[in-house]
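Model the whole thing, not chain by chain.
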Amino acid sequence: MWRFIHKWGSPKWFYTTTGPWLPWLWSAALILLIVGVVWGLAIAPPDRYQHDSARILYVHVPAAILAQSCFAVMAVSAIIFLVWKIKIADIAAMVMAPFGAAMTFAALFSGAVWGIPTWGTWWVWDARLTSMLIQLFIYLGVIGLRASFTSRDSGARAAAIMTLVGVVNLPIIKYSVVWWNTLHQPATFSLDKAPAMPASMWLPLLFSVLGFYLFFAAYTLTRTRNQLLKREARSRWVKEIALGTGKAS
Amino acid sequence: MNAKRRQRLVLICGLLVLAGIAIGLILYALRSNINLFYTPREIASGAAPMGQSLRAGGVVRLNSVKRDPNGVSVSFVVTDFADDVTVHYDGILPDLFREGQGVVVVGKLDDRHDLDATQVLAKHDEKYTPPEVVKALEKGGEMPHQYRFQLDAGISPQAIQSAATVSGLERRLDHQNDNHTATTD
Amino acid sequence: MTIYFASLSDFLAMNGYARFVWPAFAVVLGILLIAALYGRYERRAVLADIRRQERRRQALDDSPQRAHVSTDSRSPS
């Protein structure tokens, strides 16, 4: 286990091993996204009450899921970085933060647009919406905290600690609709019950969610590799890649 | 894992637990303030403030919507099946507003304990149903009353359950369902 | 599994919900597009930067009177 972690901590090994994955990840993400979005927009039935505005769920739900999953992955990276001092974990956390913030914004925006016809308002200070807004601020806080340090190591450590503290907001978002009276409805999917949605709706949603997850993986891997090259710019293997002289690519 | 790393891991876990406890306590202290709305039962028991703006949430009672023929003003009853609140409103209702729909109403309680609303929001439940499915179920007579009611009410089954235990609701629920079948087109 | 809408204009109109559905999809998918393009741009920029630095270092190495500067500040790690 420890040897496994340390192997992944080697920049060159990481870079050369993950290189061939990228085209597969990007194309799988693209295909799943196209299937999910086209199916959701054109083939899936509308909701009997919300009519075609319910189609917004095929982007709203994956964005909201990714906003939270991204932060959970950042927290795992933060622990790996703080305990084992593995720099790749820090780089990954760094490139994930803006993506997570963008997904949080995407969920808030699409939810607000959906709220206008369905609820009669684009915003209400209920526990679900407010905890999601707090999540956006936590993301911006993590990004800002890192940027405010002149020393890269101090910034990385501060961002990692703030990420770990921010994790407590994730269960609050998840259970806000159970613990309090909210305008937002409770979860449609749960482990112990059948989904409150027919297969003609949850199948395209499943494609869309998987597409977002694969996109997240492809984006994170691409940018982690970019930042790795930047940080290792002085090492021989990176120069070989940049100048196209070496075997590594 | 060497001693230094173990120490760091323990430190991080401790930090997480502390932050979790702190936020848990804050939320516990604020628990009633975080609720978006008062239920009609809370309003009837005097838990809701008079004369200042508040939100009330519940289900629009069947056959309770009365539109003023001369204008846009409308009145209806919001219920949690334990108590009722009468709402007066003149303004634009959301598309989803209908009898049996979950709503959140913003307004002030007047001296009759009626709510003068400034805004009416519709609450959607977690269920999504294609119109064709509903039509088919209705045609086949296969839609159980309970399911049909929950679908219309826009509130979660747990909420109905908890309201039922508070107020011996089962009977009233049945009554509502009978009403409902009678008025369904 | 068939297309729900009868025509393209029906599809675009979304039964009157076009002004909600399309902006929501445009913003969310637009964010994804920007993220993907940024990853591409970043890779090119980083590689170009490394090449530029390497060229500058080689230029300094080639000029004999300033050779000591380059070995001081850019000793290979």
